[in-house]
Amino acid sequence: FKLACGLTDILVRLITYSVLESNFHTYDGLDVLGIEFNFQEMPMGGSALDLVGVPLPDETLAAAKNSDAVLLGAIGGYKWDNNAKHLKPETGLLQIREGLKVFANLRPATVLPQLVEASTLKREVAEGVDVMVVRELTGGIYFGKPRGFRTDENGEEVGFNTEVYAAYEIDRIARVAFETARKRQGRLCSVDKANVLEASMLWRRRVTAIAEEYPDVELSHMYVDNAAMQLVRNPKQFDTIVTNNIFGDILSDEASMITGSIGMLPSASLGSSGPGLFEPIHGSAPDIAGQDKANPLATILSAAMLLKYGLEEEDAARRIENAVLDTLNKGLRTGDIYSTGTKLVGCKEMGEAVLRSVDSQVHAA
Ligand code: IPM
Ligand code: MN
User: Fold this and answer.
1) DSSP structure class, residue 2
2) Quaternary state and partners of this protein (predicted)?
3) Which among 239, 249, 308, 309 is annotated as catalytic?
4) For residue 231, which of 112, 119, 114, 138 has the smallest C-alpha distance?
5) Which of 6, 173, 231, 255 is most solvent-facing, going by the fewest CB within 10 Å?
6) Catalytic: 223?
7) Of all residues in the chain, what percent carry a pLDDT higher than 70?
């Protein structure tokens, strides 16, 4: 918090895919749920590529660092899919995660009673699932060196990456995971591939060592292939999962499907200091862009996580979460979570309904 001016600075980047033509605005002194905000929109990803030719302009990273929290829209689109790697929207995302040093990515996957029918799993398997995936976000094979392309001795083209973790990187994500598990059911499952990969052998050793600081948390280990299976066999066995960057990427998509739709799931990315980064775990869904079909709830719930984890405004966060539940209780559904007997609505109508519900709670309070 910038207590000196009494305002909270939030950097907002809208969903890049849909704002290519729009300008980026600054809104000062907004009253949101009784909290005073400065919002600044900055381009990143496709919009930044179109505007200035790079996926993460220096100005955007500087503004992000200078904020109390960053809300990020989904990135990517066909238009840039064939760009060179350094000119892909995804590269901008990796750069902002690295730039803000947000190594801990919290990805909750909760099956809401309202959406059990939208899950691909049977009711008795899906009902009551509440898993938190703690994904390491700034290390591993996503960032490891050496990486690149080369030609081998037979003239064959080779692509290569390196899965690498230093002990300190494992220790700090393990601590976040133990702290997280402690506030939940107190059970932590560390997922790795320690039967094959050295980076995973170190991972398992360090997580086991850190566990001594958390005697109240029950630690288990699981190989990632088994974890992928267990998640669809009996997801309720999991409370908190901690895993590396790439396994966390994959398992969180898998976990999201149990909840009905990836369009529901928010995430928080936190470092040891500085602003957190809050974004839906889904992509930009370019196949339905501009059709008013996308589910806005993951982004709305990311704003709730921003309030909770980024600004410690738990009451305001709860209001947004309640508004989402209230809207679902009224039967409103976007296409991705639609089931018989519910009301199919577009992105805009869903967003407006949540907003109305937030407002009515404020007035009731
Ligand atoms: C995610 C996404 C990103 C990732 C991509 C877009 C770089 O899939 O946030 O899960 O792999 O981390
Ligand atoms: Mn992903």
Assistant:
1) B
2) Homodimer.
3) 249
4) 119
5) 6
6) no
7) 93
- pLDDT tens column, 187-244: 999 999 999 999 999 999 999 999 999 999 999 999 999 999 999 999 999 999 999 9
Range 64-103 burial, b when 16+ CB lie within 10 A, else e: beebbbbbbbbbbbeebeeeeeeebbbbbbbbbbbbbebb
How many angstroms is it from 249 CA to the middle of ligand 1?
Answer: 7
Task: Indicate whether residue 49 lines ligand 1 (CB < 6 A).
Answer: no
> Distances from the Cα of 96 to the Cαs of 57, 86, 196, 316, in angstroms?
10, 13, 31, 26
Residue type, position 82, single letter? N
Indicate if ligand 1 lies below 6 Å from the C-beta of 90. yes
Select from 261, 255, 271 the least CA-distant residue to 172. 271
For the Cβ of 93 lying below 6 angstroms from any atom of ligand 1, the answer is yes
What was the ipTM of the complex prediction? Answer: 0.99
Who surrounds ion ligand 2 at CB < 5 A? Answer: 249
Q: Looking at per-residue confidence, does 345 or 1 come out higher?
A: 345
Tell me if residue 142 is catalytic.
Answer: yes
User: In this structure, what token pair is assigned to residue 129?
Assistant: 């699932």
Contact 333, 295 (CB under 8 A): no
Query: Which tokens in the block code for residue 19?
Result: 């704002």
* CA-wise closest residue to 11 among 22, 1, 26: 26
Ligand 1 pocket check for 136: Cβ under 6 Å: no
Summarised one tens digit per residue, pLDDT across range 65-88 is 999 999 999 999 999 999 999 999
Amino acid at 305: M
Quick one: tokens of 255?
């976990």
Report the amino acid identity of residue 304.
A
Nearest CA to ligand 1 atom 8: 249
Closest atom of ligand 1 relative to the 75 alpha carbon: 6
CA proximity to 265, closest of 109, 117, 38, 59: 109
Specify whether 308 is catalytic: no
Determine if the pTM surpasses 0.80. Answer: yes
Q: Identify whether 225 is a catalytic site residue.
A: yes
